Amino acid sequence: MPMSADGNGRHGGSRILGTVKQRGAVVVDGLRSRLWPVPALGVVAAVLAGISIPELDSAVDAQLPQTLAGYLFGGGADAAREVLGAIATSLITVTSLTFSLTLVTLQLASSQYTPRLLRTFAADRFVQRTLALFLATFVYALTVLRTVRNDNDGTAEFVPQIAVTVAYLLAMASVLALVLFLGHLVRQIRIETMLDHVADDIEQTAGRLLDRIDDHPAGSDVPVPPADASIVTARSSGFLVSVAERALLEAAVDADVVIWVDRPVGSDITAGVPVALCWPAQNGDGPLHGDRWISVRDRVAGALTAGNERTATQDIGYGFRQLTDVVVRALSPGINDPTTAVHGLNSSSAALCRLARYRLGRRILCDENGAARVVLAQPDLPDLLDLVAGQPLLYGASDPAVLTRLLSMLRELAWVVVLPEHHRAIADRLRRLERAVAEQDFDPVERQRLDQLARNVREALGRRWPPG
C-alpha cells in the first residue's frame, strides 16, 4: 500500500476516507444482521406505492383499452373495500405468525446450539425479504383503501382498478412466500445448514482480509518493540470489532513511528488497559512525548473500534468460535449429541484446510519505501487449531467418535499446510491427543483404531515435511 509522507494536509482527505470505509463496513454488517431494516424499507415503499398508483389510476383508467381493462379489478367501491380489507386483515395475521416462527427459531438456535448463531439467523436475507413483503402488502392495502370512494354526497365513485389489482397480486405473492418461508425455515434450523453458513462466513472473511501464500511472498520481519515504547490504552470496553488499517498506516507515516497493535480483532478490551505500542522509527530518538505523542495516541485509539458483540467483518476467529461452541454444547450432558459435535468438527476441519492457503499470523503494513510501520495482531493457524481442538478434547476425551474426528482433522490439515511452524503445531496437538487417548479406558479394538489414526497423521506429516 503506497503512502506519501509530504505532510498532514495531503493525507487529511484520504485518512478520513479510509476511516469512513472501515467503519462503514461495520455499520453495514450491523444493519445486515438486524431484522428491521429491510422490512422498514418495504413499508416505506408500500406507502409510496399506495399513494402514487391510485394517482396513476385517476389519470389513465378512463383511457385503458377494453382488452387490458378486462384483466383488472372490475368491481365497485364496496367490493374494492372488501378485497382490500380482507388482504390487510389476513396479511397482518400472517405477519404475526411469521414473526412468531422466527422468534421460536431464534430461541431454538440459542438454546440448542449457541447464542452466537443468532446473528446468522437475523442476517438471513430470505427471512428479511419475506417479512418485508408481508408488511408491505398490509400497508399498501391500507393506503389504497383510503382512496376508494362511493358515488354519494356529490362525489363521483372512484375505484383504483390498477391499485386494487396490484394489491391482489401482492396477496398472491405473499401466499407463495409463506409456503416458501416455511420450507426455508425448516431447512435453516438444520445443523448442517447452520454450519455451512458459518463456514462460508469464515471463507469470505479470509478472502477479504488475507493474502494467499502463493500470491504474496512473506512480508518484512516483525519489528521488536523497545523497552521504552509508549503505551496506547483502549478508550472503551467491549470486543475489538474493527481496526482502521489505512488510518493507522497514515498515522505512523505522518509521525515517523512504528505502531504495534497487540490485540487481534475479536479479543475483549477494557478501557484504560494497553492495546498498542508506539515508538519512533528512527533508532535513538527515545520515547514519544509532547504534541507528537498526543497526536499519535489519539489517532491510534480512534482507529480501534469496540463493540458489544463480535462480528465477522474483520474477525478471522469468530466463525471458529461459533463452530466450537456448537461442538461444546453438543457434548454437554444436557444435550449429549456427539453426532452434532462431529458435524461441527467436520466444518471446522474444512475451514482450517481452506485457511491454510492464506498467510495468517501478524500482519505488517509497510510504507512506500518498504519499511514496516504497523504490526497488527492476527490469529495464526496454531491459534485457530487450539481454538477448534482444545475444548472439544477437554469435554469429549471419553468419546471415541470425537477423538476419531479430531485425529482425522489433524491428518487432513497435515496434507494441506506448507509452513514448518504449522506442521509443528499439528505435531504438538497430536501428542496432546495421544496423551488423552492413553488416559481413557477404551477396549483394545477401539484403542488400536485410534492408534492407527495417530500413525496416519504422522505419515501425512512425514510426506509433506520431514519431522525432526
TrEMBL record:
List keywords of the entry alphabetically. Answer: Membrane, Transmembrane, Transmembrane helix
The membrane spanning regions, by residue number, are 35-53, 83-106, 126-145, 165-186
Matching Pfam families: DUF2254
Is Ligase one of the keywords? no
| Signal peptide (UniProt feature, chain positions) | none
Tell me the InterPro entries matching this sequence: DUF2254_membrane
- Protein name in the entry: DUF2254 domain-containing protein
According to its UniProt entry, this protein's organism is Mycolicibacterium vanbaalenii (strain DSM 7251 / JCM 13017 / BCRC 16820 / KCTC 9966 / NRRL B-24157 / PYR-1)
